[in-house]
Design goal:
Largest sheet: 8 strands, antiparallel
Structural class: alpha+beta
Number of helices: 4
Low-confidence stretches: none
Strand content: 25-35%
Shape: globular
Order of helices and strands: HEEEEEHEEHHE
Length: about 150
């Protein structure tokens, strides 16, 4: 785990976006608000910028599997992976906030077998994931987040 990173002062989403409003609500309430969002649940994922090396925070829908967290790198079905996913493929160490709980974790892309099992779980949390997958030629990855010991 990278120890010289200032995880406590990440870059947040751009001004004027719903994502920034969501992050401010989540952080400002210590996770008491914002975790539940539009009928699903969200966490805050802080990755290290692959170019800047600085922490970047993103709100994401999540699922759970045996103490691990699952997030989908959908970018709404765009042809390219989201920046947060490209960041963690370079630097798999992350910080996560789930409600009031904040912890360090490592990430990896789900194997094809895991993805096949996890995809229906994640579509259960956000049915539009199926639409996003239909819009793009890329296979949308699922990321497994494993809290550090």
């Amino acid at each position: 785990m990278t120890t010289d990173i200032d995880w406590d002062h990440p870059t947040d989403p751009r001004e004027g976006t719903w994502q920034l409003d969501h992050v401010k609500l989540y952080v400002g309430s210590n996770g008491q608000e914002g975790r539940e969002w539009n009928g699903t649940q969200t966490l805050l994922l802080t990755t290290l910028g692959r170019v800047s090396g600085k922490p970047v925070r993103t709100p994401l829908i999540y699922g759970e599997d045996g103490g691990r967290y699952l997030v989908v790198a959908s970018k709404g079905g765009d042809a390219t992976h989201p920046l947060w996913y490209r960041n963690l493929t370079e630097h798999p160490e992350v910080r996560v906030q789930v409600g009031p709980k904040v912890f360090q974790a490592s990430t990896r892309t789900a194997t094809p077998e895991e993805r096949a099992a996890f995809w229906p779980v994640m579509v259960g949390h956000w049915p539009a994931y199926d639409e996003y997958q239909a819009k793009t030629d890329r296979e949308i990855p699922i990321v497994v987040i494993e809290p550090s010991a």
